[in-house]
Amino acid sequence: MSNSLHFDALVIDGHCDTIGEQLSGKRWLGDRSDEGHIDLPRLREGGVDVQFFACYVPVPYQRHGAATHALARLDQLHLLAEHLPDQLVIARTTDDIRQAKAEGKIAAIAGLEGAEALDGEIGLLRQFYRLGVRNLGLAWNFRNAACDGVSERRSGGGLTEFGVAVVQECNRLGILIDVSHLAPAGLEDVLALSEDPIIASHSNAFALCDHPRNLTDSQLTEIAAKGGVIGVTFVNAFLRRAQPETATIAHVIDHLDYMLALVGEDHVAIGSDFDGCTPPSDLNDTTAYPRITALLQERGYADVTIRKILGENFMRVFERVWK
Known about the structure:
This protein is an alpha/beta fold.
């Protein structure tokens, strides 16, 4: 089948950890590499127009130096945009995304993965917003000042008082709230508290793969009922828990199929987790993205549905949340 639909569509990837590759000095993301999963040339080859870049804070920094490390990652994204303004823009508005697409540039969405970077200070959330952050993942598996991550689910803990303030300030500022990695009680708190739709940027269906990072039917349905979006991810252990090494791109499509049937075509997207995971061997970097579109076409999905999955669903939420 032709790739014309894929390259015409607005394609948004809801999560990657790639900026850490540049911070570590492994590679400059403006150059094409055979290492890792994402760089600007390969994003263009894969027809990806908009890439979420997570400022993840590794575990050793989470209790000391979290804000500094997150700022160092954010600085690398700004450096990339400053050095290559003809190729990359940091999107603060939906108009920035549309303009980038029209001009053949890639739009980067800056995000925090885990509220550790806030150091328990709501003023830092406002500072990150001023620096272009438009997406906040509240947790990365463990406990922080705002909430418990999914690895702390035994405690039954949800949002702390600081976490409540973070959600409210995100709503006020126009920062998208991301609940991937969040413990179940925290997810319920966010659903009850947030005035805006939320996303789970990189989570799969628990019914197909019973990994604790995946979402139950009830959680998927609640996120959709609030107008939110779930990004199916390429993490092989979230696709096939028992034999992750046997996961293929077909399993990604299976999770898309399942969620589309459960919550409908307006609430499903893609969040690769590239450069933060081991993906299927036949989905080995971002240049493979057109194959997802081709497989969706082969399974009989209409062009309008495929466009929603590839990017329009995320854009609808951006329109609602971003100020």
